[in-house]
Every structure is written in structure tokens, then in C-alpha cells.
Amino acid sequence: xxxxxxxxxxxxxxxxxxxxxxxxxxxxxxxxxxxxxxxxxxxxxxxxxxxxxxxxxxxxxxxxxxxxxxxxxxxxxxxxxxxxxxxxxxxxxxxxxxxxxxxxxxxxxxxxxxxxxxxxxxxxxxxxxxxxxxxxxxxxxxxxxxxxxxxxxxxxxxxxxxxxxxxxxxxxxxxxxxxxxxxxxxxxxxxxxxxxxxxxxxxxxxxxxxxxxxxxxxxxxxxxxxxxxxxxxxxxxxxxxxxxxxxxxxxxxxxxxxxxxxxxxxxxxxxxxxxxxxxxxxxxxxxxxxxxxxxxxxxxxxxxxxxxxxxxxxxxxxxxxxxxxxxxxxxxxxxxxxxxxxxxxxxxxxxxxxxxxxxxxxxxxxxxxxxxxxxxxxxxxxxxxxxxxxxxxxxxxxxxxxxxxxxxxxxxxxxxxxxxxxxxxxxxxxxxxxxxxxxxxxxxxxxxxxxxxxxxxxxxxxxxxxxxxxxxxxxxxxxxxxxxxxxxxxxxxxxxxxxxxxxxxxxxxxxxxxxxxxxxxxxxxxxxxxxxxxxxxxxxxxxxxxxxxxxxxxxxxxxxxxxxxxxxxxxxxxxxxxxxxxxxxxxxxxxxxxxxxxxxxxxxxxxxxxxxxxxxxxxxxxxxxxxxxxxxxxxxxxxxxxxxxxxxxxxxxxxxxxxxxxxxxxxxxxxxxxxxxxxxxxxxxxxxxxxxxxxxxxxxxxxxxxxxxxxxxxxxxxxxxxxxxxxxxxxxxxxxxxxxxxxxxxxxxxxxxxxxxxxxxxxxxxxxxxxxxxxxxxxxxxxxxxxxxxxxxxxxxxxxxxxxxxxxxxxxxxxxxxxxxxxxxxxxxxxxxxxxxxxxxxxxxxxxxxxxxxxxxxxxxxxxxxxx
Length: 868
Description:
mainly beta
């Protein structure tokens, strides 16, 4: 049987950004997954940076973090890893240097450290290794010279050596000239350089393919001309160099791909053709065809597909299966998981069985909070906004607040949120500002607010983003050094923007050459230009040799190349850390050895180069974390060490420690720090674990975890928690559910507006070929081309019939000007008479229902929603 081919569009490869430390801004980045392994109920995954992440069951220390608590979301264990293998309850990891590490259950020596004591942490076992595999209680490794080593349980001869069937506690040489190895529960497959396949071990269900009823102690030849191998729990698969698939062993779930459930004791050729890759789980076989479509044979009810040959996933490059869960890496590096999740082995939180593939670690990579609005950046570069909007700070072309996240712009590189305005740089090098502009903080030469991103040009400057880079509401901890492609010879050199910072009503921009530009309100000297008062509504160069920047409510901070911290602006509570409360109108040195700085309203958090956190300014509401007896600190005071990043709100503070713990302290009337009380928290209190980044608004907190999920708590009066509510408080952290970016789900047409919102993304209507939507009660006429194309359809004018053809969702509808007769896939159809002018067609909105779309009318918002 030929594997069915499904047509599918190739996904755009996601922009890969290097991970680094950036405070109160984007710190992580979407990094493609490259290797995966599934144990009985735990999972190992390696990304392109060589980071090993683990999750799932941990009863036997199989996650290697020294604990026995299960992990329902991914946890980073180690760096420098290229390949992983998982036994039922132990794990192996191979580093870029060829070092093999092992940990977990070790009753039979499967860790290989010479003992049978459990190994809670990774231990180095071998060097010069190129390939690894793990069975239920056994382990295997191939060296660079092609020598196969094995260790662990050997009761069935699964190590390929007799040894009186005794367990082997350390790696033992088995055979030379081996290129690949695969291990089932109690059997092993070893592929030689010349394509000869050897097997050994338990064979009561035929899994060794040797026609023996019990087991085979030594490696024995079973097949020739083999190019790929895969070992399931109790069955085996082999793909030959001429494209033939062979299977043998247990078949009670149909896992042999032979169309029945009878076991085979010798290799049996399958009728499947077009097979490109093979993999196997406990009772499943995973087949990827040459078009990278994934199919599953076998599997219990929570992992299998009921249709024997239905496409489970497309664009698949790597798969793995455990006892009852399956993993797949798509071509763009996205990891999917489905099946049993009883121990958190899917990495999707403690949720029930997932019957369809769901993405793991592919949501949000950065967040920044204004006073009462929030910006969040997804891994594909889409920027979302929600919260207060009366100054246009949500960028949605209106002045309304919204408790529902919606996308603002795509291909975003750097962003920063001020109190009520925002700065943004795209990957193409375009700088945008929007929101409040009463003090010229948008830098566009005026003082009129903008409710949509408006391009900003630095006077006399050409610029581009430093890629990859990060938004910043605090100064950077580490500078990027990745090279950027040189400009064309005919263009002037472009300098690069490396950081943006937005204060209460002023803005800062840092270029990679160290030049600092400032604009906006200068009432408190926050621009540092030598005077106070007035505004600068165009960018003005202030300093050179700057490494990082940050903006408080009415003051500014800069870290120079020598890591010295300088401050200027308002100092009414000692927030500049200069030992007094006097305003500074020019940059003044505060201290040395600074990596990052996080300004609030009237207090400042400073991270030193030893990762210690220092605080200064007002402590009226406990925002310094120094206890209730200290009203303020005019000079920086050391709070605690081991800090990774921090954030300062108006009157509360957040930080993450190097072990992933989030901490909060200060004002807590909205439970923005602690959900156990509404009282002030005067010393740091533990919040969520596995935290990567934090952001703080006026009275709300946001915590981004290492699994790329975003959590919010605190005030929601302006919708800033993004939970579709605009009133009351939320008493505990909640996981935010942002809409999936990149896939159009619905489209909203606003009354009397020449624009549309496609799943939150603003789509202007082109007056040259579209018409502004007309609304009479709930009878809506709309520009058909804009809507059809928004959903990926096509509109064409038929010169012969003088009709317009609308194609969408596999349906073709032809309509003619002034006629109530139309055809749908060739069949006659009665419709309301449309108006057509060339290819610009105005029709009644209900016509879209014939093309598989749904229509709903909201009388309160006076809008029509079109959904797929």
C-alpha cells in the first residue's frame, strides 16, 4: 500500500533568536527542537542551543534534577547536549564533546557507573561516544571507532553478550564496526557499517526475528541491506536501502504495519512504500513518508489514530514514543506531544490525555508592562497588547481598553512599554511609537496621541535592529555580538538599535555604537540635557559609550561600557541612589560593577556583576524589601544574591533567582505580590517556580516561565490581566491564554471604518479596490475581496461571464452585478443582488456562509464577526 499523500503548505521557518539575559524585557527566544526521547512516562528534549530539557515522571530520579517530584512542564537540566536516549526509568545524554552522561534508576547497573545505586544527578560514564540507546533496564553506546558497548540488565541476553546472564555494571565492549543501535524492552538491534542487522535478547514474541522461542544471548545476523532500524517495546522495524519496510515481533495492536494483529517471528515485508523514517514506541510504530507526513500504527486508545493510515501531523522531521505518549518535531523546530499525560510527560501541565498533537514550549518569549497595559511578544515575532487603551497605547486604532489580548504588529525585534506609550523596532529595522504623546514622548515632532504604530526616524540617522536582540525597560545584562549582514555598497552604513526604554512620559534609544538618544518630557530633568522643564518632541543625542539603558517614571539610568551606573532626573525619594534627594539634570555616577538596572516610580533595583540585587529609593510600601522599619534608602543597599533578573512596578518589585524562583515584595492591595493577604509584603516572598522573566505594571505582575507560559496577577480594572474581565481583582496567579498568532481565526468589521481587525491584527481596507463596510441595522454590505483574501481565499473577475468568482475552503462561488442568480460549484444559487465594479465587489455579508464561514452580529460593539 502506498502511503497517502496530503497537500500542505511549507511552514515559514521561525526566526531563531539567541538566548541571553535581558531585564524586564524579552530574555528567552524560540529555539527549535532537534532531538527527543521518551521513557515510560518521562520526556527528554534537546534544542538547537544544546539545552537539555526534561519533564514527566521523576519517581526514580529519571529527570536528573536530584529530586523525585514529577514535572508537568519542561525543566532545563544541562547544556551542550546533542542527543538523548531514555530507558523506562533512566536517561542518557550525549554532549557535543562525545561525553556520555547517565542518571536515574540503576538497580541493574543501567546507569553504568559501576554500581547498582540510584543516580539522582547526571554522571559522566564514557567519552568519545557518537550514538546511544536505552532499553528498559539496559544502555548502549557506540564510539567514534564503531565499537558497541553495553551495560545494565542482561537476564535475556539483551546486552549481546552472555556473561551468565548477569547484570553488567559498567560499559562492556560487545562488537566492532557498528553504526547504529536501537533497544526494545528486553532486546537490542545493532546495525553494522555494511548494512547487516544483528539482534539479541528476549524473543518470546519474535522480536529478535530469529525463530527462537525464548532469547538469543549473542548478536546474530537477521537481515542485510538495512539503512534504518527502530525497536519498539516488543517488536522491531527495519528499512532497507531500497526502501522496503520489514517488521517482526508483537503485533497485538497492529504495530507491525501488516494489516493484521498476528505476531511475526521473522522479518516480514510490509506493503507500505514511500517510507522515509521509522520509529517505535512500546506498542506503536511511527512512519514518516517522503513528504514528511506522520502516520501511526498500533498504540493504545490514547495514542493511536482510529483511522489506520490517517495523517497525524505534517512536516515531521523526528519522532519518539514512550509507553503511552508520543513526541514529534516539526520541520520548523516546534515540538508536539500527545497521548497519556498522567505524570506530566507531555510537558503541557497537569492536564488529562491529549488525543491530538499539541505544541510544547512555543508561546510567549517576552513581556513588558506599562502603567496599566501590557505588551507580550510571541515566538514568531508577533506583538500582543491588552489592558488600558484610553491613550491609544494598545495600538489598535481606537482609544478603548481591552481585557482580551490581540496582535498589534508582526516581525518585532525590540519593544518597550512606558506608562502610556510604547516603542518598537521591527526585524526589518523600522522604528515605531504609539500611545500618549502629550509630552512629545513619541518623538514625532508633535504632541498628538497615536492609537496605531507610527514610524519614527532619528534625525540624520539610518538604523537597523541588532539581530537577535531584545526589548528593554531596563539596561541590558549582556551585549550581543552576533554579526549582521553588511549593507549594500550603494547604501550608507546603517547603525543598529540595541535597546529601547520608555519612562512615564519620556523615551530613550540606545544604538550599538554606544550613542544614547533621548526625547519627551523634561520637567524633572529626566532627559539629562543640563536643564529641567520643557519637552523635546524629536530625538536628541545625549551620551556616547553607553552599554545599557533604563527609564523610570521621571528619571533615567545608563550603564556605561565600564559597567558604571549613571543616573539623572527626579530624585525626591532618593531613587537615583546618590545619597540625597536633589534632582539631577545631567548624568551622575552612582556605582560601579553593574550588570542591569530596573527603575520603578520612586525606587530602583540594581543587579551587580556578582548577581546580587541592590535597592534604593522609597520604601514607603515595602518596595525595597528591606523590612517595615526603613522608610527609604538614599544609597543602594544589598538585598539578596543569586538574582537572574528583576522588575519594578510603581510600588512593588519582582525578581527571579538563578534557580528559577520568582520573588515579590511591596504594595499588595491588588494581590500583585501575594495571594495570601492584601497586606504590604515588606520582604521578598516566593511566588511561582521555574520563572524566567518578570514584568511589573502599576498594580499588576507578570511572570514568564521557562515553558513560555505567561502568568498574571493583581489588578484587572483596566483589563491588564488579559482574562476578558475589566473589574475586580484576581487573588492568585493565572495562566494567560493568548490567541495563536500566525493563523487567521476570525475577522471583525467595525462600523463606518475603512479598516478591519483580523484576529486582532489591523488590516486597512484599500480604497483603490475595496469599499468601506456599510451597516444598516444588522444588514451589512462589505468589500468581498478584503475578506476573502484575509482568510486565504482568492477573488477573480471573469471577463467572459462578467462575473466575480470567489474561491475559499474548496468552494467556488460566482456572482454577477445586479443579478440575484449565482453558482456555487456549478450549482444554481439565489442571493441578494450584489454590486460589482470590475473586481471590487460589494455583497451582503450572508453570502460568506455559502463559502463555509460563520457570521455573528454584536449590537453593543456595532460590529460583525466573520469566523472560519
